[in-house]
Automatic annotation (TrEMBL):
One of its GO terms (cellular component) is cytoplasm. It comes from the Eukaryota. Pfam families: HEAT_Maestro. The gene is LOC102368833. This is Uncharacterized protein LOC102368833. Residues 89-239 form the Maestro-like HEAT-repeats domain.
Length: 283
């Protein structure tokens, strides 16, 4: 892994095919080595492997900071963010958040970077991860989203220090975790709706639809909230009575997932209908 990390820093930059091979090698060494073993030695080796991976990804991004570069790296992390093993999932989230934190330090170099529609997909995926039952994964997903938000705000010409907080907890602190989760998802989705491009919002919506069809209920319900938020329809879920939010989300989920129909308030977004009926087309 040390050799892989060193190669990633070479100047001039490596050929794309070699970079891709290095990235695959580093990820496999981190996530596929000694899976299921809990000995102190194995865990120590895995910790070192994770640290090398984080360093390598930072080096790869630093060679040419841009949205395209961030997407190139991020698309290879997406698979690992969806692993069943919660320890590996937590590792993938840690690595992703670390990379996004580093990207913030490079934000001036993103100014002239062309917009990449897949940024919307990454934002939505991290949003779905907020619903993870593992508290640390949920927390780091929020942190990663805030890093992404700051870069996007800067690219819009706004002061990065004035980026609004995505998680307003003070006025909802007495709510159960489940309701607070939905409020966070809606707030986040609405905030990103204001700064993502139209194509990025569409990519966000498609990832949310994939989430709706996920086998795990907590992911499906998160997908509903994110879909409504990015389409500017979160008010249909939030309402005046916050305790009713989970019930409203579940009703919308039944319409979307079980009946393969768009609720009335979403029907003007006709481009979603075919994707709803054939979610495999979004893969």
């Amino acid at each position: 892994m040390a050799t892989v990390c060193m190669l990633s820093t070479l100047k001039p930059a490596l050929e794309p095919a070699l970079e891709l091979h290095l990235l695959h090698t580093a990820l496999q060494n981190t996530f596929l080595t000694a899976t299921g073993h809990n000995s102190q030695h194995i865990q120590g080796m895995k910790q070192i492997s994770v640290e090398y991976l984080e360093a390598m990804l930072r080096c790869l991004l630093a060679t040419a900071p841009s949205w395209a570069r961030l997407h190139f790296i991020g698309q290879h992390l997406i698979l690992w963010l969806q692993l069943q093993d919660e320890r590996d999932r937590a590792t993938a989230m840690r690595v992703t958040t670390s990379l996004l934190c580093f990207a913030v330090s490079l934000h001036p170099q993103f100014e002239d970077s062309p917009k990449v529609l897949q940024v919307g997909d990454l934002v939505a995926l991290l949003g779905l991860c907020i619903s993870d039952p593992v508290e640390e994964i949920s927390r780091q997903a929020k942190e990663g989203l805030f890093h992404l938000y700051k870069i996007l705000v800067h690219q819009k010409g706004q002061d990065i220090q004035e980026a609004q907080e995505l998680w307003h907890t003070s006025q909802h602190q007495n709510q159960p975790r489940r309701i607070l989760l939905y409020i966070h998802l809606a707030t986040m989705g609405e905030a990103f709706r204001k700064i993502l491009s139209e194509d990025q919002r569409r990519a966000f919506a498609e990832r949310a639809l994939l989430g709706i069809h996920h086998i795990m209920l907590h992911v499906s319900q998160a997908g509903v909230v994110l879909l409504y938020a990015i389409l500017g329809q979160a008010g249909h879920l939030m309402g005046a009575e916050e305790k009713e939010i989970p019930v409203r989300a579940l009703r919308k989920l039944l319409i979307l997932k079980c009946f393969h129909q768009l609720p009335k308030e979403l029907q003007r977004h006709s481009h979603l209908e075919s994707a709803l009926r054939n979610p495999s087309s979004l893969q």
